[in-house]
Design goal:
Layout: E1 2-8, H1 10-15, E2 21-28, E3 31-39, E4 44-49, E5 54-58, E6 61-65, E7 69-70, E8 78-81, H2 88-94, E9 101-104, H3 109-116, E10 121-124, H4 131-143, E11 147-150, E12 169-172, E13 174-175
Helix pairs in contact: 3-4
């Protein structure tokens, strides 16, 4: 199944802040196996294919993406947060960490920012996301060494289910 979000970050697009993307993922056996996230304003393409790593193409330059390693006991971990979708249980989760830092970003770009080291963890607990909102970002993050897990089960997020609703999840760099 192809999972397509032709405009991820509608509010960011409307506000003209440039933080929106086009997302395409290929789903096989309920898992994303290929993903593409294109940032039109930056003319930047992030992509991954299962077993082939995560990459970014920008201004004719290619770079392989690799997440950093983090620990739950690290100070100043950086959390990706939305400008418009915050929840009390998300904040309670973040408050468990020592001196958390915040980066507000739109759409899938919070998940992508983990692959570049700008963000360490992106918790999303409000259940307002759909499969097309995260599938492409998940495979890119996984291929860069991170993961996207169900908040309750700790298992990877799966796709092409009877409900297109995504469960509450945590996207993160490599946790050691």
């Amino acid at each position: 199944m192809w999972c397509v979000d032709p405009l991820d970050g509608t509010k960011e697009f409307i506000s003209r802040n440039g933080e929106f993307a086009i997302c395409i993922a290929l789903i096989e056996n309920h898992r994303a196996v290929a993903g593409f996230v294109y940032e039109p304003v930056a003319d930047r393409l992030y992509y991954a294919v299962k077993g082939q790593g995560a990459h970014v193409e920008e201004k004719g330059q290619h770079k392989t993406l690799q997440v950093k390693s983090i620990s739950a006991t690290d100070r100043h971990l950086t959390f990706g947060v939305s400008r418009s979708h915050r929840s009390d249980d998300q904040q309670a989760y973040i408050d468990q960490f020592k001196d958390p830092q915040y980066v507000s970003k739109g759409s899938i770009l919070k998940m992508i920012a983990i692959t570049t080291g700008e963000i360490d963890i992106y918790p999303r607990f409000d259940e307002k996301t759909k499969e097309w909102d995260i599938a492409a970002g998940q495979i890119i993050l996984e291929e860069a060494g991170g993961d996207v897990i169900h908040k309750i089960t700790g298992e990877p997020i799966t796709y092409n289910k009877p409900s297109l609703q995504s469960p509450p999840f945590i996207a993160r760099a490599r946790m050691i």
